[in-house]
TrEMBL record:
Residues 1-25 form the signal peptide. The lineage of its organism: Eukaryota, Metazoa, Ecdysozoa, Nematoda, Chromadorea. GO terms for cellular component: plasma membrane; receptor complex. SUPFAM superfamilies: Protein kinase-like (PK-like). Keywords: Signal. This is Pkinase_Tyr domain-containing protein. It comes from Heterorhabditis bacteriophora (Entomopathogenic nematode worm). Residues 11-57 form the Serine-threonine/tyrosine-protein kinase catalytic domain.
Amino acid sequence: MSTLLLKFFFIWSFSVLLFEIFSLGDSPYQEIKPQEMISYLEQGNRLPQPKQCPNEMWI
């Protein structure tokens, strides 16, 4: 894996972890099938801001 790809993967996985923490354990991407995930993300779709997540933490 390239260094750039590893950095992207780290940032993405950390953001999923934060989503799970702030949503108090909700499953991310519940409506997306695994085989559709890459195209979903390439289209610019992202996880919604959890209700418990302060705006200062949301970019």
